[in-house]
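Structure representation:
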Amino acid sequence: MARLGLLLAACALMSCGDARDEGLGGQVAGLLLGGGAEAPAPQSLNVTEDDLLSNPGTYMRVNVRDHNRWETMVRAGSNGTRTTWIDGQSITVTEENGIVVATRGLPRDMMGAEATATWNAIRAGGGMVQRQVDFLDDQDQILARVLQCRIVSEGSDPVTRLQRTYPASRFKEECSGEGLSLTNIYWLNPSGRMIRSLQAVSPDAGYLQIDVF
């Protein structure tokens, strides 16, 4: 609990709130987990597999794919539909209904993003939306990009983790505009909760694979 208290205090002190076409969308196929092989549970917060499974909504694990780095994150706080998670190095990820809207502590952080239209399209089974994503440029200035996105349902796609399989439906979001392209993948359980996702953060941070327990 002392460790958790320090993490929450760190989060309270942080702001959790010319671009090249890096082709983020083209990286997705090689990033998805395949064949049932799983990375070991991350231990940076000394969280065991039993902790992950027996405390639903408390932890998530994040794979910063482009940096070959796994992190365990703990729920630091919620504000409406937004939840902020923090790890042992004070990296934070803020999600809205499971969609990443901000990060702090990663290379060229996502400073903010719109998620409502994407979430509504997912709940409707797909659609076309416009969303804005803000991230840091090479001069540490906020760079805003307005993207046109297409969300499609890809049907049933069960999620396997920690030797357990969960029913899930998979959605793909393909976005492009203003010299940037990306593809996000979302897995929702039958109750509509996002339990896994693969989401682009910025050209330097790349993709996060997120599993919420």
